[in-house]
Design a protein that fits this description.
97 residues, mainly alpha, globular, disordered N terminus
Length: 97
């Protein structure tokens, strides 16, 4: 897998990102980690149940920080165990900016 560095967009830094945009990005990241098509990602299912391991869960935290310029706890994927839960969490955090 090859990865490119992403800097936070102006929209992400200002908190002007919709929950739909966050969800779509998360689905793409999870699909990338699990090496599956995005269409196979169940947004309401627990990430660990889909096969996301602790290494990728921690990597996802770094990706969130890179993409949205938002510092998150390394336990984010365990505290918010699905794409839907992480979306709600991130949308709330970004709205506070």
């Amino acid at each position: 897998m090859t990865e490119t560095t992403v800097t936070p967009t102006a929209a992400a830094l200002s908190g002007d990102v919709s929950p739909e945009q966050i969800r779509a990005w998360l689905v793409d990241r999870v699909a990338y980690y699990l090496e599956r098509p995005a269409a196979e990602i169940d947004e309401g299912a627990e990430l660990v149940g889909m096969g996301l391991d602790s290494v990728y869960a921690l990597t996802l935290c770094g990706d969130v920080e890179d993409r949205f310029g938002l510092a998150v706890e390394p336990t984010m994927a365990w505290d918010h165990p699905s794409v839907d839960a992480i979306t709600a969490y991130l949308a709330g955090e970004l709205a506070q900016r």
